[in-house]
Specification:
Immunoglobulin-like, five-stranded antiparallel sheet, interleukin-10 receptor activity
Length: about 120
């Protein structure tokens, strides 16, 4: 299948020190219908690339500050992040059996908040 695999739709939400990333698609357009491309392939992963804003150059594949997470799910929680720090995220589809990667989604950036861990003395 030589079709270009477009970028997935991505939503990014910051919550209690973590970033929640949701993604769907890409879709194959057929007349009025949209079908998730993952239905056409046996193996399908999403690859999440994330980094601290301003910490890396534009070539994400070789940049040292970029963390990569592969998942089979449609969402992922990025934890172990520094609080009050802006992180940027891009996602692409990966089809291992075809050794093929899809186009990267556009960059989304969000600031993390405090991680919400309270000290013992604060608990009533």
């Amino acid at each position: 299948c030589a079709a270009v695999i477009g970028p997935p739709d991505v939503r990014l939400k910051s919550e209690s020190g973590a970033l929640h990333v949701d993604f769907s698609g890409p879709f194959a357009e057929h007349e009025q219908d949209k079908w998730p491309l993952r239905q056409y392939y046996g193996s399908w992963n999403y690859r999440i690339l994330y980094w601290k804003k301003g910490s890396t150059d534009t070539d994400l594949t070789s940049a040292s500050g970029v963390t990569q997470v592969d998942t089979k799910h449609n969402s992922e929680i990025l934890s172990q992040l520094e609080p009050w720090t802006v992180y940027c995220v891009r996602v692409q589809a990966v089809i291992p059996e075809w050794n093929k990667t899809g186009e990267l989604s556009r960059e989304l950036c969000e600031q993390t908040t405090h991680n919400g861990n309270v000290g013992d003395w604060e608990i009533m």
